[in-house]
UniProtKB/TrEMBL annotation:
The name this protein goes by in its record: Carrier domain-containing protein
Gene Ontology biological-process entries: amino acid activation for nonribosomal peptide biosynthetic process; secondary metabolite biosynthetic process
UniProt entry tagged with the keyword Ligase: yes
PROSITE patterns: CARRIER
InterPro entries cross-referenced by the UniProt entry: ACP-like_sf, CAT-like_dom_sf, Condensation_dom, PP-bd_ACP
This protein's UniProt keywords: Ligase
MF terms in GO: ligase activity; phosphopantetheine binding
Length: 641
């Protein structure tokens, strides 16, 4: 389309240009080619590409020709990353951008390169110290009971910390419904088999120094399979219920678990998945220099965007749902996910009064090109998901589609560096305060991961999964959006705490998103000029991340005159043990190199010293002075053992 010298649309010329074009021909060019017009692949690389597309998109090979377009066939950014990974395992390197552009299969192959000795070599690694099992004692287990140890990922550590702040959050509650009723003994046997096969389900977390580690036990703990003593337990039908912390699963590994339960019940062979610890160790060894350089450049000068002041206040978790027909979201070359992100960024920007928006996106993180040649990331049995920042920058006269294209380009560029977690990005690539959390989180879920299909248990018995419920933290002031496409519509759940948002306000956000997705304005200027009175960046240096009044009481920051020296020394040693800088007595942990996960580590280190100090109490009393006062003034009882 015609543009002015700055690269923006030349609106008068666009109007004249559109009037002079054959729009019917343009529409026809966007339609999928008829099967009769398809040309079969010629080269081996084209045949490989067609096979990969057919597998990833669940399309018959006969419906894919040299003229076919990946996006028109139903591809999206996740499918593109899956396809790129599969191609690499078949010795073909395909650029993600080629799959996402309006290119034919033949044109995509022309941009590929063969995997050579140099291109298939392992990526640069950084020093990695293999943990010694004997250094990690677990209460109730001996050293021979420990199978393996690895450092927790950034995502796992953050989830564990947030989960301890809000015990009811980030725990999946679901189950299986059998038709007809199944045999109880076989169900227990199947669950035991899956616990043994999926090592992640035998995982416990422990703190050592400044890091959180995950330990795989050789045998499940005795309490992992329990009889239901509820009021319906005397009924003939069996309803196994599952409670799984989000630090132990993601949507992909959960689907693998369901299928293996069905296989174990039916006596079939269980899946051959990839060890999560092996994947996590490989991830730790990747060289972060290039990735950190990318994120520093991407986030330079940015601030976190908030819709309400950041805080942790008890509330009730609520949801507003939005449904948008998928046909109105069809824009050639752009994914539905990036169209939604563009709409949500504009809504956040208007509410917060900014033209530079930052929010978080939850990623599957199973398609890292550095690992795709050496490990099958799609079969990893564990929570590979990660959280990365998304930055949207608005300019006057910018079109909605141009904003979505900007976000898609950023997403593709970040794909090779998505393995770095939020904690690392925050500490090493931004100036954001270390006690800050995102104001909004977007989770775009694939429709193919957790469907409503039945599980075949043999003997004419089937099982259906109960609707899963994994609540975001109800004390968080962030707004969590869960986006899921179905066959006919895009379903968006806006999850929020009643303590942070009014329901009518969130309904207003949903309405604005729908308006943007339907209209796709050719000029976003009216949106960015009508700023609200929202909040942007940190409203203070230390917004409270502490939990509610059920935590230990916040005490004075000044040393109490009679506080024993030995108590102060305990606090000093605990801080040194978790790697905090030692500054003034009143300096909070966030000014000493710590974050929310550090508060979790402090809590666990205090317990080892015999003091029952929760993560909420650490956050509410974040300086050495306050923690020493708390230990002494509250008369805190030391733990036995």
């Amino acid at each position: 389309m015609p543009v002015v010298t700055s690269g923006k649309l030349d609106r008068p010329s666009v109007i004249a240009w559109v009037q002079s074009q054959d729009m019917d021909a343009a529409r026809g060019a966007l339609q999928p080619s008829a099967a009769s017009a398809l040309t079969a692949p010629i080269s081996n690389d084209e045949k490989t590409m067609r096979s990969v597309w057919a597998s990833v998109l669940n399309v018959h090979e006969q419906k894919i020709g040299r003229e076919s377009n990946f996006m028109v066939l139903g591809g999206d950014s996740i499918a593109a990353m899956r396809a790129a990974g599969m191609c690499r395992r078949r010795s073909l390197v395909v650029p993600l951008q080629a799959l996402m552009q309006s290119l034919s299969l033949a044109e995509v192959v022309s941009q590929c390169e063969e995997v050579t000795t140099s291109s298939s070599a392992l990526p640069p690694t950084q020093p990695y110290e293999i943990p010694v099992v004997s250094d990690f004692p677990v209460e109730g287990f001996s050293v021979i009971d420990i199978e393996a140890v690895a450092e927790a990922t950034d995502a796992q550590a953050s989830i564990v910390a947030l989960g301890e702040l809000d015990r009811h959050a980030l725990v999946l509650k679901t189950g299986l419904i059998f038709e007809p009723p199944a045999d109880v003994a076989r169900i227990k046997f199947a669950c035991a088999q899956v616990l043994q096969t999926h090592e992640i389900l035998r995982m416990v977390f422990t703190q050592k120094g400044p890091r959180l580690y995950q330990i795989v036990l050789r045998r499940p703990v005795d309490s992992q399979i329990l009889p239901d003593e509820g009021p319906h337990s005397q009924r003939n039908d069996i309803l196994p219920q599952f409670y799984i912390h989000h630090a132990l699963y993601d949507a992909v590994s959960l689907g693998m678990m369901w299928n293996d339960i069905a296989a174990a019940y039916a006596g079939r062979e269980l899946s051959c998945g990839t060890s999560f610890l092996e994947w996590a160790c490989r991830l730790t060894q990747l060289d972060h220099l290039e990735a950190k350089s990318f994120w520093r450049a991407t986030l330079k000068g940015s601030q976190l965007t908030y819709l309400v002041p950041p805080r942790q206040t008890p509330g009730t978790l609520k949801q507003v749902e939005l449904r948008v027909p998928l046909p109105i979201l069809a824009v050639p070359g752009l994914t539905t996910a990036n169209l939604f992100k563009a709409a949500w960024a504009l809504v956040m920007g208007r509410e917060a009064g900014t033209q530079d928006v930052i929010f978080a996106e939850v990623l599957a993180n199973r398609y890292d090109p550095s690992l795709s040649a050496s490990i099958n990331q799609e079969t990893v049995r564990g929570p590979c998901m990660n959280t990365n920042p998304v930055r949207a920058h608005f300019e006057p006269n910018m079109t909605f589609v141009a904003l979505a294209a900007q976000l898609q380009e950023q997403s593709l560029a970040a794909a090779s560096f998505a393995y770095i977690g939020y904690r690392t990005i925050q500490k090493d690539c931004t100036d954001w305060p270390l006690n800050s959390l995102f104001g909004s989180v977007v989770n775009f879920q694939s429709p193919h991961v957790l469907g409503d299909e039945e599980l075949d248990l043999g003997d004419s018995i089937t099982a259906r999964m109960m609707p899963p419920a994994a609540s975001p933290p109800s004390r968080s002031s962030a707004l969590w959006t869960i986006v899921r496409p179905t066959d006919e519509e895009l379903v968006v759940g806006f999850n929020f705490s009643s303590a942070a948002f009014d329901e009518e306000k969130v309904k207003g956000f949903a309405g604005q998103v729908e308006d943007l997705l339907r209209s796709k304005p050719s000029d976003i200027s009216p949106w960015i000029s009508k700023a609200s009175h929202g909040f942007r960046g940190q409203t203070s240096k230390s917004p409270s991340l502490a939990a509610s009044s059920d935590e230990q009481t916040c005490v004075s920051q000044e040393f109490i005159e009679e506080t024993p020296e030995e108590v102060r020394l305990v606090v000093m040693e605990v801080w040194k043990a978790v790697g905090l800088e030692i500054k003034e007595d009143h300096a909070p942990i966030f000014e000493c190199g710590g974050d929310t996960v550090t508060a979790l580590l402090l809590s666990r280190q205090y317990r080892r010293q015999g003091y029952n100090l929760t993560i909420g109490a650490v956050l509410a009393n974040s300086s050495r002075q306050a923690q020493a006062n708390l230990l002494f003034r509250s008369g805190m009882s030391q733990l036995s053992g």
